[in-house]
Amino acid sequence: MVGLGLVATLLILVLNETRPELAFQGAIAAGILLILLVISYLAEVVQTVTEVALEAGLNIVYLQTLLRIIAIAYLAEFGSQVCRDAGQGSIASKIELAAKVIILVMAVPIILEVMQTILSLIPAN
Fold it and tell me: Which of 53, 90, 120, 125 lies 20 to 30 Å (CA to CA) from residue 77?
């Protein structure tokens, strides 16, 4: 993957001199290809974590929510970096802000569950 990234970078630098529009498209294509190469590793991690959570008797809904939050964070990072590469820093910032808001909204049930657990551990007066 590092080799692919370095080769793509060199090609993009060469293309940037003559055909900047192709260089940008090449950068996006290289990024997507790298993500596709990593997905199989991520699938293994998700499967392993899910199996351990099921064996431990954990509520799978919270694990699914956590995994979705992680996916949103990675996708937002990729999208914002593509925007920055295109010289659109303000749009990149908006993508990051939107992702943070979505992550916060998705985390509310987990936060509430943690708060309820903590409150149940505190003895009532």
Answer: 53
The count of structural domains within the chain is: 1
> Which residue in 31, 17, 121, 10 sits closest to 79, CA to CA?
31
Helices (H), the chain: 2-18, 20-56, 60-85, 89-121
Cα gap 103→46, rounded to integer Å: 19
Is 110 part of a structural domain of the chain?
yes
Q: Is residue 20 part of a domain?
A: no
For Cα atoms 32, 38, 39, give the angle at the middle one, nearest 5 degrees. Answer: 90
Kindly state whether residue 111 falls inside one of the protein's structural domains: yes
- Give the amino acid at 32: I
1 by DSSP, 3-state: which? coil
Mean per-residue pLDDT of the chain: 90
Q: Distance (Å, rounded) from C-alpha 75 to C-alpha 84? A: 14
